[in-house]
């Protein structure tokens, strides 16, 4: 199963005369139970407003982890896999706040035929697997696990995340199982009595842990949607709004739009003696249309920002797995009978016959090979001094095309290797280059090519220098690719040994077309003169991409091959507000016109997507 929140397996290895080993991602972080325990201790220490502020923030953090686990379980259920042992101890949160669902040791695959049999026939009580307290009552009674049984366990985890206390007590397994069957759960209240649990959140937990599986959510994805609706202060399926709650929610959520509506109503009341009922109705409708226009504008903006963030998040995950494998190969080299899969860049330049798969590519503008890679030695480094590393890294050639293909859109599952090679050479994926630079000056690159100079030293590249001050994956600013791929941005993963020795970096180059097309695309609103400008702004307030050419020295950088210099956001007094608020709208007066600045964060790369509109034209 390949999902960002399911612990990835790199392979199954069997040494001669030894055991079978599974190579899996090493996660540096904490279990969800440890996070709950830490927050519990903090809540015990704090008082008054400090307690309320801490718990409000930490609850949102815990619920965000919960949503990611729901997404992983929903993916597994779609593959017809039931986990059967969901609990806080089996959930890990990494150092980047990435969430992993662990311990699939007792997971079960259920066919559609088996699922229908469980739904129709009563089963006698049998043995069950899992952790008492998290095992669903129907599983205990019948011995038959269902997809809804995982949801019950998710509800129990949610209970603990919200209350910071156990959902059920028992001195032994038998007592826990009996209490589960009788639905004798602990009262749903927070560890600290000062903190009140919202009714909507209570209803979500009750629905997820309903004793009868038929009364739970139809699937885990709907449970995640309800948690997300709660965090966004929207109506939930578990706790429908009545009229008064709907009105209050709307007024609170759309403060600016509400102010416009109230002002319109006051004007209507002042003119009621000279206005007809028909005119009043039209005024109210106009206010509602304006409010809806503002909501739709922000929703469309956040959707575009979300697409960009999802794109970069997926690519970050690809690089992390590639970098982990590079580090694994360097630290555990197996050179016996190993074939060198990287060739000297000069061999590519001279088109030697020994190069595997070297063909012309219109996309790259020169001959490349997607069946092999090239290496480049820094000046002063000799092949004999780094041949060991080249041999150790050679097996990764078999996987690199697959890493690149993960950045493609709508690829069929049965796409062959030959079809992937054809796509890479002619149409291209978002990832154009995959490479690693070692501390000794060795560069290995894929696809293989010869477009390098004798003086090229990977250690002199600005992204390599930046990695010396980073321990974690980071994204570079956009720059001009030396080898004809235009504007690119690099994701860079510094590599450190188990002893914290710097080994080098692994990196991927991404074409910036995806974000650029989003900036330039005016399809969201084709009415002329409304969307004035679009920007991608970094957290330093610099505009890294815009429809305004003068926001950078892009043309000059294309000639000099230097790093691009970016100008400051045109409204510097708004930068702090945009960075602190993450998402929203700001209205301002500029050159006698009213402008609306809408913005949303792109958390994976730490950027912000901003649109500048003509406010009056938008409302018209």
Automatic annotation (TrEMBL):
Pfam families found in the cross-reference section: MCP-like_PDC_1, Pkinase
Keyword Phosphoprotein: no
GO molecular function, one term: kinase activity
Full protein name: Protein kinase
Keywords noted in UniProt: ATP-binding, Kinase, Membrane, Nucleotide-binding, Transferase, Transmembrane, Transmembrane helix
InterPro entries: Kinase-like_dom_sf, Prot_kinase_dom, Ser/Thr_kinase_AS
Keyword Transcription: no
Segments forming domain Protein kinase: 1-231
